[in-house]
User: Fold these one by one.
Assistant:
Number 1:
Amino acid sequence: MSMSVSLPQRVPENVPGDFYVVGGICLQCCIVHKCAPGLMNDLKQPFEECFFRRQPQTPGEIEQAIAAIEVSEVSALRYGGNDPGIISRLKARECGRQCDQTEEGRAALREMEAILKKGREEVAEKLPGVRGEWWRRLLG
């Protein structure tokens, strides 16, 4: 399926896979850890943003990941896969905006991309003497 938006940058510590956390927006609320403690990062270790340290393997773990997406306060947790059963379950829980493969999910990605781009541009405008491309590499 072709997407008209670029996918968001994932938290670097997020393991590869379909479930992920978008980099740069986590509030460290840690609510998601109660839903998926074995999948999310270890709260006893220092961290800057939540991330999936492990992808779900069992039906129970997939349920935990879906529950974590459902309670994500700022919708930082997303599903990037194309499993119709998982997408259907997320849509049934009104989390279709957090699926990369749904129409509402692609719209949410476009909104997120615009907000993050605007944020980077505003930062660049407020930094005196910022010229050239180095800030683009630094801020994404």
Number 2:
Amino acid sequence: MSWDVFVMNFPKEAETVEDIPDDFVPPPLGTRAELIARIKVVVPFAEFSDPSWGTIEGPDFSIEVNLGKDDTVSDFALHVRGSDTAAGVVADIISTLGLRAIAVPPGDFFDPATAKEAMAHWRAYRDHVVKNQ
């Protein structure tokens, strides 16, 4: 189970997720190779032996980077587990790429200022689900 962050070139004028037009089609972000190179500027130890599915392993967190099978990437997902440190890494990646993202939960635009809180919310949800299985 992971905290999922969906990255795309969302409309800059959208202030909330509800503001995204139903017919919105995101412009491409670039090629997988370009995105990998840009992510590795932020996280040099990111591992992309499989260019469609990278991993970032920290001492107390892990992030899977799902870039998909297509050479041209229009969106990608970050599947995050572990400590609050991971929220900072996610914020650095999104900021460096100059993109926007939606974090689930809470289902809103990713905000670096509240990323640790959002991740804590996810951990509480995960713990609740695991406890009640």
